[in-house]
Amino acid sequence: MLVSAKEMLTKAKAGKYAVGQFNINNLEWTKAILQTAQELASPVILGVSEGAGKYMCGFKTVVGMVNGMLDGLGITVDVALHLDHGTYEGALKCIEAGFSSVMFDGSHYPIAENVEKTKTLVKLCAEKGISLEAEVGSIGGEEDGVVGMGECADPEECKMIADLGVTMLAAGIGNIHGKYPENWPGLSFETLAAVSEKVGDLPLVLHGGTGIPADMIKKAISLGVSKINVNTECQLAFQAATRAYIEAGKDLQGKGYDPRKLLAPGTEAIKETVKEKMELFGSVGKNS
Ligand SMILES: [Zn+2]
């Protein structure tokens, strides 16, 4: 059964480790992440962007697939199914469809509007026992070919949103989505420490986990980050393994064209990436 992310993140914050959110795109992705979490006795959060939700034929399809897999694979570790960077309307749809966690990304709204919309969602999520992530200070990344360096959130605004009763908060600390540019200045631990002090026990979320050096990840966890989002890294691992399979001509040997064979190396590569991240985040064995 899917669970809210609240309990797993509260435990993570207290235990000074982080739970990984791994974004899913299809059946292979989901299976690889769930099997790895189970094997490592780690709690896990499956992230679904609105685009990925559309790709998988809607949020209801996603809920059906994930619930079916929890049963079919005998998954007993804590799993949250979470909307990643949701619009207000998207969050409502996911709550309705059976997600156990949603993110409302109101960072592009003026703070007053972000507060209003977040308030409504806090109430709805509380009624259904769903966890809610809010965002302050937009996370950088490639947009129209320009890579933004990542904003730093205003700790006062973070406090304002935290006080509304959200479960976890994504605060921009110079992190960005996708690959990090060569001249990236690194995470702003000064901002993170200031936000952490303002929001107390509230679990903080680090987006754009791909390519942040391990020592920075560890330091961020020590300063209150208890959820780390990983997306691009699984995509790159899948792509590299699939490319190697084709370039080695394996799809041309025997029944190498069988999609179950063709997609197997990529799926294994995702498992390997998820394992590395869970070890780095310290969530291994925390669900036994
Ligand atoms: Zn993000």
Walk me through this protein's architecture.
This protein has 288 residues and is of the alpha/beta class. It has one domain: TIM Barrel (Alpha-Beta Barrel), CATH 3.20.20. The protein is built from twelve helices and ten strands. The strands form two sheets. The chain has an eight-stranded parallel β-barrel, surrounded by nine helices. The two termini are 16 Å apart. The model has no long low-confidence stretch (mean pLDDT 94). The chain binds zinc ion (ZN). Zinc ion binds next to loops.
Shape: globular
Q: What is the CATH class designation?
A: Alpha Beta
Tally of contiguous helical segments: 12
**Helix vs. strand class:** alpha/beta
CATH architecture level-2 label: Alpha-Beta Barrel
CATH superfamily caption: Aldolase class I
Mean pLDDT value: 94
How much of the sequence lies in strands comes to 15-25%
Please list the strands of the largest sheet in the order they lie side by side: 1-2-3-4-5-8-9-10
Give the CA-CA distance, first to last residue: 16 Å
- Please give the largest β-sheet: 8 strands, parallel, barrel
Our Rg estimate from Cα atoms comes to 18 Å
Secondary-structure element pattern, one letter each: HEHEHHEHEHEEEHEHEHEHHH
- Ligand species: zinc ion
